[in-house]
Amino acid sequence: MRVLTAFLTSPQNRRWMAAALLLCAAGLSQAQTQAPPDDSDAGDPPSRIARLSYREGDVGLLPAGEKDWGDASLNRPLTTGDRLSTGDGARAELQLDSGTLRIADDSNFGFLTLNDQLTQVELTQGTASVTVQGLDDGQSYEIDTPTVALVIDQPGSYRVDISEDGKSTRVTDFAGHATVYGEGGAQRMVAAGRSYEFVDSSLSVVSINDIQGGDDFDAWVDSRNQQYASSPADPNVSPDIVGAQDLNQYGNWQNDPDYGQVWYPASVGADWSPYSDGHWSYVGPWGWTWVDAAPWGFAPYHYGRWAHVRNRWGWVPGPVGVRPVYAPALVAFVGGGVSIGVGGPVGWFPLGPGEVYNPWYRASRGYYTNVNVSNIYWRNNRNLVINNINNRYNYFRDGRPMPNERYMNRDVPHAFRAMSGQDFVAARNPRNHMAAVDQRRFSEAAVMPRGVSGLTPVRASFAPPRANTARPLPAGGFQREVVARTPPAAGFGGRPANVAGAPRMAPTPNNVRLLNGQDRGMRGPTPGRPQDFSAAQPNAGPRGNAPSARPMPRGDNEPAAMRPGELPSARFARPNAQPRGENNQPRPGLSVIPSADSDRMRGQAAPGMLPNAPRIEPAQPQQARQDNAERFQRDSGMQQRQDIQQQQMQQRRAAQQQQLEQRQQVQQQDVLQQRERMQQQRQPPDALQQRQQMQQQEAQQRQAMQQQLQQRDAMQQRQQMQQRQEMQQRNEAARGNPQPQPQQARPEQRQPQPNKEEHRAAPRRDDQQR
Q: Looking at the whole model, is its pTM more than 0.85?
């Protein structure tokens, strides 16, 4: 292996790698010229997927159709037929588009059906929690246990516990309403704030108790719910994108004029690129699937497109108003499928915005269109995008490459990754096993129209191998029987099939028994079937409605001793803190309700949305073996309190919704103001020109006012001058007149001025003397 790595990464062999890629492209193009798939959607994969979003401790994975267990990797997609097993002290969390499933330690869990309408799981051992945030029309959750089937068709939060011997099932309803189904058409609705323990499938005997506190698993579930509730829904992405709630924590959003809202990851190196740190896993029915190593590495690798904007990689999500369709990896492959030398090279690069994704598995025209339209951002013309997709499908159906196809990310530095085919199928990380390729020769290699469907997976392709010191797990999966209301779907086999045909289907599980015998093809209960694996587990007794099967309360009616650090309701999963394998006894304080009608009537409340991070306060302990009449009286009062609590809860939800809307309005206003400031900053010359024009107008106005004042002063001066000239002319005319009579007449006219008259008379006497 060291020789192979040195040979592939040496500089002198780069031209050999490029030539090998070209030969692989030509060979695979001929190998994939097969009968085109029809346009029916019979063999299309589902659009929904589950993501392993959290794991702690020993978590084993058994892929659909396989016999060997592997290690469950973070961000690994899970689908119909996949099974998980948690060890002592381990936990796991699974994210879906509409809910979250969490698994406690020492639990066995599997997906019986996961499609666009139904999420059906089996819980054969241990404890599981389900939180449903919202459901579309026709969607539901079903949890099948050894005793009953729990069906959830509205938002709520629930917990399911299986007893050590598998003979009883406890359903705890924290919020919402659900229905429990049993044999013979029996069904019972469960109400919030109570736990129900069913000892057989007839539902004739049920033990009901108010919720009392919670254990460490409840505290962990509550903390995870609070973490998701503290980060509001991102308006930039569709709420149905799995893993979108992690983006705000590990990056930031920025607006781009070409791609709209773009998410940029934080804390990545300069040589980093998408699809470079992780491994390729084979997940049926999609085939080769990228599993990223980053904690946020799910949504950006299975939805949307990547763009290289201003020397940075950014993720461009699809349209918000369109339900997204999951894809195994949105890349274009070059090479692969043909063995050249040792392993054969395989190369890939991320698709850019607007570029059409070609699946390497069976896809009808409808699926081909939906998986692209829901993950391509369009700014103006959606019909143009759809027409381009339809045109590309014709080439995809015939297995022909698109002529003159251009890819924006192909020549971006560090975008192209290549590794040997042997490292590819062995699920090795490209960061540590990358092969050097001459970019100039790589630009001449053709992109495969069907990807790398010709590569055959090996054992490590389905799941990383478990450590030699890990606990043993049974080959083939679980053996304990569960009952189901809905017939489970056939799992997708992991081994590849002809790409032009439907994928290989794994057989339906043989440990599922349908209630009321709905499906004749489903295998019924097998006598003497071994129970689920666990250390020193005794054989379970026969099922039945005999009185001996009914658990009896403790004789002393005293609480069982609690382990160090254990909370009260830890006895749900470990009754009486007994070691695994011993007979279980019911928790003290239980009381029996013989009729389901009263409890079903209490469950008829109007459906409501799940409150954020529900916290159930512990109730006061009750005395055991209370009289039924007292019990019914207390139920009526309790129902009133529940109604009041429900009204208060609705008011709190309305207040929270109003606060959220106010915050969103404030954020929108801030964004608008920021955009206005940015526009002002981007256009400083226009603002300066406007200020200069205003200053010029003010100067012109001042100049005009000054001119008016000057003109008015000049006019006044002219008028005064004219008046002085007229007075001077009159004076001169008076002095030069020889007739005395007019001179004598002037004093008569000016009698009020005698002094002036006397002053003017003196010259006349002088003139007479002359």
A: no
